[in-house]
Design brief:
Elements (H helix, E strand, L loop, with lengths): L18 H13 L5 H9 L20 E4 L2 E3 L2 H12 L6 E5 L5 H9 L2 E6 L2 H14 L2 E9 L25 E8 L2
Parallel strand pairs: 3-4
Antiparallel strand pairs: 1-2, 4-6, 5-6
Helix pairs in contact: 1-2, 2-4
Length: about 180
């Protein structure tokens, strides 16, 4: 696997990025109350160290948020696990929309559980990094990129108004990715 700079990275990991370290992270999450086997299995399968800068790879499996650039962070593993567990407590969805792709880690974990995951990111540089990380380190394919715009501002129109709804504007474009589990 290659990182964003085009250098080779070990997807299996060694030392603090090994499968054994991932297993310890999963055990900590279980001790913190995460119970769903699908969530724990997905977190154990997705190599989190591939979604952070190489200099931070040895800290990837700590239960802490880490910087990923552009003023953003990768969520701590417990937060990722709890959000996904809450999502599937009632029933299993077929399609998931994630707002804020970031480095792509949560999208990769989601795609290990759900059939289709759609993720939107407003920072193009993060989307490009997520595409590299997802394509190399997991069973995820990014199939397309598009600019997304909302349908309307959500304001209610007066029943007497004949003017069309106003278009909402993003401060910058949003980039949409369609992620699916590779066959």
């Amino acid at each position: 696997m290659k990182n964003a700079a085009g250098q080779e990275r070990n997807a299996a990991g060694i030392g603090m990025t090994s499968q054994r370290t991932r297993a310890r992270m999963v055990e900590r999450l279980r001790e913190q109350g995460i119970r769903d086997a699908r969530v724990l299995g997905a977190l154990g399968a997705v190599p989190r160290h591939l979604f952070v800068e190489e200099a931070l790879a040895s800290r990837a499996y700590e239960d802490t948020a880490l910087p990923i650039g552009f003023g953003q962070t990768i969520s701590q593993p417990y937060v990722v696990a709890r959000m996904i567990e809450a999502l599937i407590e009632q029933k299993i969805a077929k399609k998931i929309l994630e707002v804020g792709t970031g480095c792509g880690y949560q999208a990769a974990v989601l795609a290990s559980i759900f059939r289709e995951v759609y993720s939107i990111e407003r920072i193009k540089g993060l989307l490009e990094r997520a595409r590299i990380s997802s394509a190399c380190g997991s069973r995820i394919c990014v199939s397309r990129t598009a600019t997304a715009t909302p349908v309307s501002t959500g304001r209610r129109r007066s029943s007497r108004s004949s003017s069309p709804p106003r278009r909402a504007r993003f401060p910058m474009p949003c980039y949409a990715s369609s992620l699916r589990v590779a066959e």
